[in-house]
Amino acid sequence: MLIVALICTLIGGVIFAITLFKPRHKLVQIASYLLFLLGVWAVSPVNNLRQPKVVSPSQVVYRFDENRYLLLTGYRCQGQLYFIDDKEQVYYLLSAGSREIYTEPYRHPAKNYISIPLSDISAINTSIDGGRSFRNIHVADGYWLGDHDSPQYDVVNDQAFILAKDGNLHASERPFGTKAPYMLSKRDQHKKILGRSQIIPDTIPPIPDDYTGWDKMQCDYDDNDTILPDNHPLLEVFQQWLGTAN
After folding, report:
1. What is the pairing mode between strands 106-107 and 114-117?
2. What is the count of structural domains for the chain?
3. Domain check: are 22 and 101 in the same one?
4. How do strand 226-227 and strand 184-185 relate by DSSP bridges?
5. Domain span including residue 89
6. pTM (2 decimals)?
7. What number of other Cβ atoms are within 10 A of residue 167's Cβ?
8. Angle between helices 26-43 and 234-242 (to 10 degrees)
């Protein structure tokens, strides 16, 4: 078909050039011009004219279960972080940019109460409605947990628990609808805080046996750009129909 297209281009071009000197043959001139034009279209290098659409890489960095997960969009494990629940059609932007993932052990079987820490636990994105809205809370007042200071972070029974390396256990309040900006500390449980006198367990409650989520966030540091599926232009469709496409 490529040879046929080249012949049509040549014949159409020659006839069109001749008819330029004989303007009375308008129909022949139009037909030859169309033949020449279709021939040119059939052999044009479409792929060299089209630029691929490239977007920043996106990857799932944590799965709560088969429907709920955290999606990170950006380079070198930094960027925009989304909480997504495909089943409930929930899509929430947790961070607009430069967000890093939490790298310590992290398990999250809880459904409605969602607790997602920043990488250094300087703040914790907290939701009490299944991820439709979030607010920030912090570890117990007067404490600071930096990088790698938490050997375990579990969210179970609609309550978040952070076990620090010094043995102190931090726990979010129950019921999870409370508005306190800080978690409670096992070490400070003896202190009488108005409206916050709750018993904190000695250890983190066990994770349910049917938990299918991940035990830790994970990220591919070298993840590459994503090339979007190509929308073939009309010219390429025409070439594919003729069999002259590259």
Report:
1. unpaired
2. 2
3. no
4. unpaired
5. 54-188
6. 0.70
7. 9
8. 90
